[in-house]
Design goal:
By secondary structure, the chain is mainly β. It has three helices and nine strands. The protein is about 10% helix and about 35% strand. The longest helix is centred in the first third of the chain and has 5 residues, at about 5-10.
Length: about 160
């Protein structure tokens, strides 16, 4: 069967909606197909997960499920310590995100949404797009491949060999 967008001559990216989220100065662009919901959670709801990759900030309980929380800023190398806000904004990923279904991405704030035709075409072809003007923030397209599947494997505990016995 032929894709309807091909028959009509419509670029599927142009008609697709994207969520725009801010992390520091970076604008993270996430396909609306990957977004299940946007949540505001209190810091006290986050349960830390020791012995996991530091990119995993912890987890929290929401609607009868445990949601792993990714420090998106750490994963992208923007900053190594996440902000300690009382209320945090989380973009929870949908089933379309494959191995990341149900995972929460910590962002500074949600800026809104746009259709693909209003976004620079360069973000779909490069890792990160830097606008020509300095007043505009760099833009990065989020894909599930940014986070590897082994991110959720527990790290091995190692005894500190410097401690005298």
């Amino acid at each position: 069967m032929t894709d309807r967008s091909d028959v009509l001559g419509i670029n599927p990216i142009a008609t697709q909606r994207f969520l725009l989220a801010q992390i520091e100065q970076l604008t993270l662009v996430i396909s609306s197909e990957l977004v299940a919901e946007i949540l505001l959670i209190e810091r006290s709801q986050i349960l830390p997960l020791p012995f996991y990759n530091p990119v995993i900030l912890g987890c929290f309980h929401h609607a009868g499920q445990i949601v792993p929380l990714i420090a998106t800023d750490r994963q992208l190398g923007i900053r190594m310590t996440s902000p300690t806000r009382e209320i945090s904004t989380v973009v929870r990923l949908s089933e379309s995100a494959e191995h990341l279904a149900g995972v929460g991405l910590l962002v500074d704030k949600v800026l809104g949404s746009q259709t693909g035709d209003l976004l620079p075409v360069e973000i779909f072809d490069s890792d990160i797009y830097f606008p020509a003007t300095e007043s505009d923030a760099p833009i990065k397209l989020f894909t599930p491949q940014l986070l590897s599947g082994d991110l959720f494997a527990p790290l091995r505990w190692q005894a500190d060999s410097s401690v005298a016995r």
